[in-house]
Amino acid sequence: MQLKIKIDLAPENSATVSAQAPFDPIKIRNFLLVLVMLSSLVCSMAYSMWPSGQAYAETLDSNTAENVGILPIIMEDDEPPKQPDIVLGDTHLLVEKVTALDSETTVKVLDVNTAQNAELEPSNEAASIIENEHVARAQLTSAIVRREPIDNITLLSLANNKQIFYFTQINQLKDKVISHRWRLNGKVMAQVSLSIGGDKWRTYSSKTFNNSMLGRWEVAVLDENENVLSVTEFDVTQ
């Protein structure tokens, strides 16, 4: 008895089976793409949910009231209350008007000729200014600008200017009345009363001269009791 075994050495589908790879590369690629997209989406959501400024807030919280720098508030010096000065103008030794002077108003602007309107220099012939605790300043000037005299006059030449101002700064006489007394060659020609409205008060009177008023003039500051507080002398020439 013979046993016959038939072995198929070349099956028809052997090439197809060997040609197939153990894994599908297309599926692997698609899986990797999906995995990358999911990872990106998760990272984006986590970043958006992270509280912004957390590190900055923690930095501020770590500082205490003692070590946090505070910028100081810088303020300008307090400006003293604006008080109107009294402007007294007169013609022929008569007071014509009294007006309030704003601190930013220019009363009169003149071209100062230093040859005729010389500044005050220490000398025996210079106008005397006797100051005390109530008269901080007393001087003659050709003009007042922003409540301040622009020069110091000892000689008035009518050929160049016919008006002069007597500027005074009065201290510690609030609610008192002072006077500017104008004298020509020793004779009283006019006396103007001025009310003092503050502890530091600037005020002045003015005079307009003509050829009949030539000579040696003296203007003085008097208190309510006619006591002389300050005296200034000057000459009026043609």
Description:
The chain has 238 residues and is an alpha+beta fold. The protein has a domain at 85-237: Immunoglobulin-like (Sandwich), CATH 2.60.40. The chain has three helices and twelve strands; from the N terminus they run αααββββββββββββ. The strands form three sheets. Strands 2-1-10-7-3 form a five-stranded mixed β-sheet, with no helix packed on it. The longest helix has 25 residues, at 25-49. The N and C termini lie far apart (175 Å). The relative contact order is 0.14.
TL;DR of this structure?
Helices cover 17% and strands 34% of the residues. It has 238 residues and is α+β, with helices and mostly antiparallel strands.
Structural class: alpha+beta
Strand order in the largest sheet: 2-1-10-7-3
> Total number of β-strand segments?
12
Q: What ranges have pLDDT less than 50 throughout 5 or more consecutive residues? A: 53-130
Radius of gyration (Å): 50 Å
Strand content: 25-35%
